[in-house]
Amino acid sequence: MMTQTAGALCALLLCAPMGAAGLTLEAALARTVEKNPAIRQAKARLEEAAGRRIVLRAPSLPNAGIGIFGGLQGGKRAGEDQTQPFAFGQGLLTQPLFYAGIPAMYRRGNIEVLLAQQRLNVALTEQLHTARVAFYTAAYNDSLQALAEIQRQRLATNAATQSDRYQAGTADRAAVTVARLLEYDVKPRVEQSRRLGSGALLKLAETMGEDLGPGGQLPRVDSRLQFAPVHVNADTEATRAVANRPDLEIARLLVRAAEEDQRIIEAAYYPAINATISGTYIPVSEIRRGSEGSARRSDDIISSEIRAGAAYTWRVVDNGRVRGAATRQRAVREINGLVLARLEANVPRELTRIQNSLRALQARHDALTKASSVAQLAVTDVQNSLAEGLSSLLEYRTAESSFLESTAGVLTVAFEQQIALAEWDRATGRYLQFFNEPSG
Q1: Which residues partner with 288 through β-bridges?
Q2: What is the pTM of this model?
Q3: Strand pairing category for 287-288 and 272-281
């Protein structure tokens, strides 16, 4: 009996199946990309960024306006025999010929779209990482629950054996009581693993955007928490991480955006030249102005006309308005640059920390695997001796606790390795493909 139970425990530790029709990690990540609210919101912000780019480019485009005016005229004051309607139209077209801020505005509009793209990348990275951690947490707690349940069944078998020995007169009532207490002592561990697993499944369902209303069901995960030797190199991955991580790309874009904003502000120092075309359309002829102060009556006649020319403006006195805004924007650019430098300097340290954690997990796994094998043999010997009355329940309890802790420790190391690998993928920017050019 003990050999079959230990074999089941080893199979559980190595494979840890979470259900025949459970949710795989690939399916969970696919649902997260498709239905996660934060990712969908970040996708919608791309359209907003395109509109923002149009606004930034608007000063370089022509500006046209049309005005139509109308009314009634007549009566004795107007010198007309009868009241009649009148109307005329005016139009204005201006086109910037020279403005120092236009190139910076175009570059700033492209950066706006790039920022929206990288914010989408950040949302994808964070939400996929959250889903992955929740998936592993649910699988880990399901495995712990199954492990504790197998041990509880074994302790229940031992309690039944002690009860049979008590009925046969070879054991006292205290032995039966202690055996039952050992069985009941495992139940809180089972319930704790079930509670933590349900919490992880709830987090996974929220990240995937699943319906959690009345009638909604939590997903079931199908995973194998399996430890495997992993070799990573923080030195070679640091350069790739600095180039590919979306949060660092956003920091670089913010530096560029602050620089272009500064140039847009400083463009007020330079002259601006606009081409202007204006016109007035009068549908009738011989319309006179209200005052006839001209030497000739024909000079007061209003008719349709069109004018073209250029307007030249140049700010002469600043009064500190442009200079102060430019100084403030320069400070923003320098602050963004310092933040970027700090983030890039933290990348090698973060990768080194994860690399050291993976090496420590390898050493722990080797030690716990050996301890689990020794504890398994000890439980077998103590249980056989206990059935013959040669061992005490204290020895049995100690052996069972050692076996459970070592076996659960191996499972914990496998879980922590998966979490460390997820952190490694997040820190190196391996979750997505990045875009470095403005979209069309």
Answers
A1: 301
A2: 0.75
A3: unpaired
